[in-house]
Specification:
Mean pLDDT: 88
Shape: elongated
Largest sheet: 5 strands, antiparallel
Number of domains: 2
Number of strands: 11
Strand order of the largest sheet: 9-8-7-10-11
CATH topology of the largest domain: OB fold (Dihydrolipoamide Acetyltransferase, E2P)
Helix content: under 10%
CATH architecture of the largest domain: Beta Barrel
Radius of gyration: 19 Å
CATH superfamily of the largest domain: Nucleic acid-binding proteins
Order of helices and strands: EEEEEEEEEHEE
CATH class of the largest domain: Mainly Beta
Number of helices: 1
Structural class: mainly beta
Distance between the termini: 40 Å
Length: about 160
């Protein structure tokens, strides 16, 4: 996956933002984020081993993929850099559900139609609540070029 466009335009909020940034392993913290096996993960457990005969303490990381919930593990020398994903949360008003995709309204009134209806219980709840005519606010999390609707709540009355 190579980025073919190197023209420096910064219209959209994430055009100039890189998908990840480096952080020294020893600076990572539980409940923070890290990239393990190419996936953006939330750190749920980490431990540091004692320095061995040849020098480096190792950090054992356990992370849960923020999108799939799958568990990943990694071991890295504490002095090495690991990639930390940029994770952005945005809330949008749900306008419509069409053919498995959410139609969302952004803060500036534009529509966003490229977020998939979540599978399973969350997606079913969204469809049910939407059909009942509730005003719904969808939280969309973006990281490393992926976007997923991770939660939904009813908009407070009188907010629209």
């Amino acid at each position: 996956m190579s980025d073919k466009h190197d023209d420096h335009t910064f219209e959209s909020a994430d055009a100039g933002a890189s998908k990840t940034y480096p952080m020294q392993c020893s600076a990572l913290r539980k409940n923070g984020h890290v990239v393990i096996k190419g996936r953006p993960c939330k750190i749920v457990d980490m431990s540091t081993s004692k320095t061995g005969k040849h020098g480096h303490a190792k950090v054992h990381l356990v992370g849960i993929d923020i999108f799939t919930g799958k568990k990943y593990e990694d071991i890295s020398p504490s002095t090495h850099n690991m990639d930390v994903p940029n994770v952005v949360r945005n809330e949008y008003q749900l306008i419509n559900i069409d053919d498995g995709f959410l139609s969302l309204m952004t803060q500036d009134g534009a529509t966003k139609d490229d977020v998939k209806l979540p599978e399973g219980e969350l997606g079913e709840q969204m469809e049910r609540d939407f059909e009942e005519g509730k005003d719904l606010i969808v939280t969309v999390v973006s990281s490393m070029g992926e976007e997923h609707a991770l939660s939904v709540k009813e908009a407070p009355k009188g907010s629209s």
